[in-house]
Specification:
single chain; Immunoglobulin-like; eight-stranded mixed beta sheet; 12 helices; 21% helix; 35% strand
Length: 651
């Protein structure tokens, strides 16, 4: 999905929906009372069955919202017993192989079904459920009807990570891959999309079959309909057929260059093989909450993408490419657990960036700048070990900058782009479930080096990430000698390559080079000697191309005075918080206390040892603002956290 916009790993004796558990917790906290204990589980009529859902046969009526489900099970030869599957309250008419089940009940979001197989072949269970017209938390998960810019109503049945059980009985584990069929009943002439191959038995029915490559429930549980969609063929070639479904006068048709669409498909298929769900790829424009969402053989894009602030150089094209990557990375190859969500989004963003860097002049720079802004304010590590674990919906929205930068981009500088791409080819070569640990193994295999230290420092951890910041000293003698010191609160030294840009008085006086801490840094300080440029070095910019996650110090200049190195402030700005590093040297650290639209202010404990300047907010390009307050070398610390579902918008 293009942002982010879920939960930590769960031991799944009985699968439960993360969003349902969050909602239950909110209700308990809001009422100030204990939730009722679930009724005790009585003796069941048979042993518990280990199962997998091999096929979901689903019939959905867009008018009545009734979902009829038939789940074909692989129970490894068992002929009778009981199974537990996530399901909402209100499931009715539960049957086992066409006859009433021996017993059924719903307990704490789980449907318990007991039965005996009287027929040969795979057993199945049938049920009915009227899906509420409701969405959950800050997402569009559930069933919704929303008017577009012209007043036409878009209907969307949408699952997500560990959330398909809001829509009916469904194994919501992210690592489960299944087949699907959809039979959708709708008004005459309505245009309906769903996963897999599409057919129209008559004017009130649309059928989709996903019977080849398997797909995860989080993205395959989907029906989308819009009465004004018209189909336009964007690409018809040997790499695929791309159709755009958009209302007349829509904004995506002029924004999606058909030649670039075809070229990107060629670029992807040359590296990862044919489109996983057949040669037909349908792209739909709709009034969605997220910028985009991947479904097998379908992509749903927000219909006003070209009008949004340009965090990417080309909003529509970048989002479309991101969702195309998900056909391989996230659908055919899925998540081992909800905790592995960062790799899915990191791969989609990274491959889109690589194509922009190689084929779209100047566009990659905007992508890197956006990642960097997001990463600097990340609230969680990519594999958080916090207890309690962070809410998945907040965690998932937090990784759209730090994920691609840490898991892939920064490793270009340490390993090489060719090695990173080779690792991704291995990682995505086969259908199945993959973890962040599997991605690390692929990167180590392609490069031949250990990434243990890298992952221990950059990927794993509890609490707010302690990203490094860098101080630079330089001396001009026969050559230019630079000393780069990496600073962190905890003293951690991160494996990385740091790009520096020497700057003179004139705009054209620029010279870049890199210093490397390597994969096993021995010291927080590295030194480099470079030829003297033919102009006086006035300042050194750290990470000028936004390729490294690090703390920035706004307004900080690093200058070479006559007697040596000093740090000084140019026009100190009220609202900046200063931390003393050693006598005479100050590095500005901003502490976020006042937040803009789409952000939530989270207050933390007082932090000692900070010197403050007073009181004016400093706006940033990310929509938030930074502020600080005075308290005798003591400051109140807070964070601006993106509200769930309102920050980054790609899934």
């Amino acid at each position: 999905m293009t942002t982010g916009g879920e939960a930590p790993v769960r031991i799944r004796c009985v699968p439960l929906s993360l969003l349902r558990r969050v909602l239950s917790l909110l209700v308990v906290l809001g009422l100030g009372c204990e939730s009722p204990a679930p009724p005790p589980i009585k003796d069941v009529d048979g042993p518990p069955l280990a199962y997998a859902v091999d096929l979901y046969d689903l019939a959905f009526d867009l008018t009545t919202r009734e979902l009829t489900s038939r789940l074909w099970l692989d129970v490894k030869g068992a002929r009778e017993g009981c199974l537990s599957i996530p399901a909402p309250e209100g499931v009715t008419d539960v049957r086992w192989q066409g006859v009433p089940a021996v017993s059924t009940r719903t307990v704490d979001g789980t449907l318990e079904v007991c039965g005996r197989s009287l027929l040969e072949g795979a057993p199945w269970i049938d049920s009915r459920y009227v899906v509420p017209e409701a969405t959950h938390l800050y997402t569009q998960v559930g069933f919704s009807r929303r008017p577009d810019l012209h007043g036409d109503v878009f209907s969307y049945l949408l699952g997500w990570v560990e959330s398909c059980d809001f829509l009916g009985p469904c194994d919501d584990a992210p690592d489960r891959l299944s087949h699907f069929t959809f039979e959708v009943t709708h008004a005459p002439g309505a245009v309906v999309l769903c996963p897999g191959t599409l057919s129209h038995p008559d004017e009130t029915h649309t059928r989709c079959e996903l019977l080849g490559t398997r797909a995860p429930t989080y993205s395959a549980f989907m029906v989308a309909s819009h009465p004004a969609w018209k189909r336009t063929r964007l690409v018809d070639s040997d790499v695929g057929r791309v159709d755009l479904y958009e209302a007349p006068g829509g904004l995506l048709w002029p924004a999606l260059d058909a030649a670039v669409v075809e070229d990107f498909l060629r670029w992807m298929t040359a590296r990862f093989g044919p489109l996983p769900y057949g040669p037909e790829l349908r792209v739909a424009a709709a009034p969605t909450e997220w910028l985009g969402m991947e479904h097998p053989a379908n992509i749903v894009l927000r219909d006003n993408l070209p009008l949004l602030p340009k965090v990417y150089a080309n909003m529509a094209l970048h989002t479309w490419m991101h969702e195309v990557v998900h056909q391989w990375a996230g659908n055919r190859t899925t998540l081992a657990s909800a905790r592995d969500y960062p790799w899915k989004e990191a791969v989609a963003e990274y491959l889109t960036y690589v194509y922009e860097d190689e084929h779209r002049d100047g566009e990659a720079a905007s992508t890197l700048a956006y990642w960097d802004r997001l990463a600097r304010t990340a609230s969680y590590h990519l594999r958080p070990s916090d207890v309690p674990a962070p809410p998945f919906i907040s965690f998932a929205n937090d990784i759209y900058g730090s994920g691609p930068m840490i898991l892939l981009l920064q490793l270009e500088s340490l390993l090489g782009r060719a090695q990173v791409l080779a690792a991704l080819q291995v990682f995505l070569a086969e259908p199945g479930a993959r973890s962040i640990a599997d991605l690390r193994a692929a990167l180590e295999g392609a490069s031949g080096v250990s990434l243990q230290r890298y992952f221990e420092t950059w990927v794993d951890g509890a609490g707010e990430p302690d990203w490094p910041f860098f101080q630079v000293e330089w001396r001009e003698e026969q050559a230019l000698t630079l000393t780069v010191t990496q600073r962190t609160v905890a003293g951690t030294v991160y494996p990385c390559v740091v790009e520096l840009e020497l700057q003179g008085d004139a705009p054209e006086q620029r010279q870049r080079f890199t210093v490397s801490y390597g994969l096993e840094p021995l010291s927080a300080t590295v030194r480099a000697t470079v030829p003297l440029p033919p102009w006086t070095v006035r300042r050194v910019e750290v990470d000028p191309r936004n390729r490294l996650v690090n703390r920035r110090s706004a307004g900080l200049l690093r200058e070479q005075p006559g007697s040596g190195f000093e740090l000084r402030l140019q026009r100190p700005t009220e609202g900046d918080a200063l931390q003393e590093d050693r006598p005479g040297q100050l590095a500005i650290r901003l502490h976020e206390l006042r937040c803009g639209r789409g952000f939530t202010r989270v207050r933390e404990e007082d932090v000692p040892g900070r010197i403050q300047l007073r009181s004016m907010a400093v706006p940033t390009t990310d929509g938030d603002a930074h502020d600080a307050s005075v308290a005798e070398r003591r400051s109140v610390r807070a964070r601006c956290v993106r509200q769930p579902g309102l920050g980054v918008g790609i899934r």
